[in-house]
Amino acid sequence: MRSVGKKLHFIVPLVLAVSVSQGVSSEIKTDLEKESYSIGASTGQYLSNQIYGQLQLGAKIDMDKLLEGFTDALKEKTKLKEEEIITSLNNRAKFLNDAKEAQFKKLQAENLKKEEDFLAKNKAKKGVNVTKSGLQYEVIKAGTGEKAKPESIVIINYKASLLDGYVFDDTYERKAPAHLSMVNVVDGLKEGLMLMNPGAKYKIYIPSKLGYGQVQMRDIPPNSTLVFDIELVKVMKPGDMRPKKKFEMMGLSDSKKDISNAPH
Question: What distance in Å separates the CA atoms of residue 121 and residue 114, rounded to the nearest whole number?
């Protein structure tokens, strides 16, 4: 997602090599030409993505043989038997899977080291508090009122980012606060919210062990420290989110409806 430039750096020389071998392209005029070109373009885009991903994992590509195999397959004149092709692809798949696993473990170790270094320095800063679990937080603004409980529903505004500054979620940008059940948030965020009173603003640093741990969560890498600039707007009880019945909206309760004047 943030590596488009790198992808072009790898793919452009390969595309140029293909273009030279094909000569000068003709104009695209008719609907048939457009449709045919689109089939080729979509296939080429798929191949480009495959090539880029494999190059990133350290696999080599012989572009001449790739194009030869592609052309031969279109002509139904492949030089390898189907069993040989399957065996070769399986061997390559194993190499790529092993490379992905090694790359992921390396990323885990690198991020864990970055996190340990950051948290060690950050906890020494003035105004930073550390809980027994390792959660770090700064009180930007105090609040008042009853704090959230493990079963509460909270209304919050926040900007959530990583240590490199990448913002992966922002209610301020959406211009709509989030309504969250405390039972559904990660441990670090739950602990931080339970420290706050309504109206408070905190900066919370959530270690990966209290966040998403060693897994990759969408665009959040493994062993990532989560940084929340957060405002607790309101604390509600679970029942407060329950849709009201018609007689409740009229000001009557279920158990106290007056039926003395009901028609017989």
Answer: 11
